[in-house]
Design goal:
Helix content: over 70%
Structural class: mainly alpha
Strand content: under 5%
Largest sheet: none
Number of strands: 0
Radius of gyration: 21 Å
Order of helices and strands: H
Number of helices: 1
Oligomer: single chain
Amino acid sequence: MTAILTAAAIIALYLEIFNNSIAAYSVYEECKKLQRRLIEISYLRVNCA
């Protein structure tokens, strides 16, 4: 019985870590997109000025 509970706890922990890393990766991707957008905007501003 304890082994089953331990296994369930380990699996739950693993899934939690896995989901958090996916969320962190999405945030990282969004930041990269925003940075690219900012670079494009500043580039346009320099060219239009």
